[in-house]
């Protein structure tokens, strides 16, 4: 049995973290049995990872280790893995008879897709912060703000876009998604980046859409974003719903 470590939120039994969604999509797509353990966005992340022998994913400027989610621990191999890309590669290698997250010969391209997708957004990701703060457990908000501020080297709440800057960031975000839409248009048809077959690249986009869908219920701008690009993202979100099972 695989244990999947995901962020706890104010939405019972669900997260809107884009990175952990990539791994949940992956596990469900492969139809692998797993269970979820909800971890608070606090020092608990490091405690859990160290306890299960799950390695850190990066280092702080002072050289200390940083532990992040998503993470999994596979009882069958006694292996712990963190980072959605590394988890996807592990699942493909360990369970070769399940649907591929990286179809043969595409792992390098999909890794590049991940970097390209993230780089398109620049500082527009700051538009997501108010949504994230609303779904975090109240006791976790301070840790999140401190951790993000430390990573950025400046107070997070002081750099959230407002007024004219916010409008510019919205335009940048829409333009970024339209560029990704052009990538999808070259797939020969079908809702996924590879046409009719989902792959990890679609789960990267799906992770972002999870936040858009969560915000779209209350904020017209997010709903507009979801329905943009001729409905590309709404359609993709609908196609991915079958892989959103939470166990």
UniProtKB/TrEMBL annotation:
Gene Ontology molecular functions: glutathione dehydrogenase (ascorbate) activity; glutathione transferase activity
PANTHER family recorded: GLUTATHIONE S-TRANSFERASE OMEGA (PTHR43968:SF6), PTHR43968
Stated name of the protein: GST N-terminal domain-containing protein
Domain GST N-terminal: 7-99
InterPro entries in the cross-refs: Glutathione-S-Trfase_C_sf (IPR036282), Glutathione_S-Trfase_N (IPR004045), GST_Omega/HSP26 (IPR050983), GST_UstS-like_C (IPR054416), Thioredoxin-like_sf (IPR036249)
GO cellular component: cytoplasm
Organism of derivation: Crucibulum laeve
One BP term from GO: glutathione metabolic process
